[in-house]
């Protein structure tokens, strides 16, 4: 795979990057997706949240975390006392990867090759957004940010030094949605809120 580097502008801000990403051909995922979904938030955001890839709703709307996972994320941010305006929200991979089953589009996890191909866009966001804390939502984000395999259960909720920034990893909000029984789901939500609180307290 060629990777995204040749499509990433060297100059300009998040707005320029968001325009340029629509032309990216750094891997094959652009072919079936509706559009690329770039990160959202101010360049002065103190916290950057990194998800996996856009879902079905995000692919259609062009905005990150507006579907069911986004609803959980919003609730958890509020419970953790984090204002959505303080955060920059993005994904490790900018195009939706899916499988068609009848009329439904079923999410497929990106491969390491997709994460690596799309890495230059995340690097460019890290370059433009001045956040002091990065929060990886799930293993794909952990892999993308830290550049190594990450086991969420072993590393969640602690602050790791990462250059001049801090990194924390936690679960992906979709993992909470997949829990069928109410009590375990609520417990998982509370743990997620606690991890976001760790990130909030690490902001400089
Ligand atoms: N899941 C993600 O990881 N990102 C989104 O934007 C939506 C769902
Ligand atoms: Fe480019 Fe990333 Fe989309 Fe692949 S997923 S085409 S690297 S923006």
Automatic annotation (TrEMBL):
**Secreted among keywords:** no
Q: Which UniProt keywords apply?
A: 4Fe-4S, DNA damage, DNA repair, Hydrolase, Iron, Iron-sulfur, Metal-binding
Q: Answer whether the UniProt record assigns the keyword Transport to this protein.
A: no
Which top-rank group of organisms is this from?
Bacteria
Q: Which residues form the Uracil-DNA glycosylase-like domain?
A: 38-194
User: Known SMART domains for this protein?
Assistant: UDG, UreE_C
Q: CDD domains of this UniProt entry? A: UDG-F4_TTUDGA_SPO1dp_like
Any Pfam family the entry gives: UDG
Q: Which InterPro entries match?
A: UDG_Type-4/5, Ura-DNA_glyco_family4, Uracil-DNA_glycosylase-like, Uracil-DNA_glycosylase-like_sf
Which NCBIfam families does the UniProt entry name for this protein? UDG_fam4, UDG_fam_dom
Spell out the family assignment given in the record's similarity comment: Belongs to the uracil-DNA glycosylase (UDG) superfamily. Type 4 (UDGa) family.
* Alphabetized PANTHER family for the sequence: TYPE-4 URACIL-DNA GLYCOSYLASE (PTHR33693:SF9), TYPE-5 URACIL-DNA GLYCOSYLASE (PTHR33693)
Q: Mind telling me what this protein is named?
A: Type-4 uracil-DNA glycosylase
Q: Which organism is it from?
A: Microbacterium salsuginis
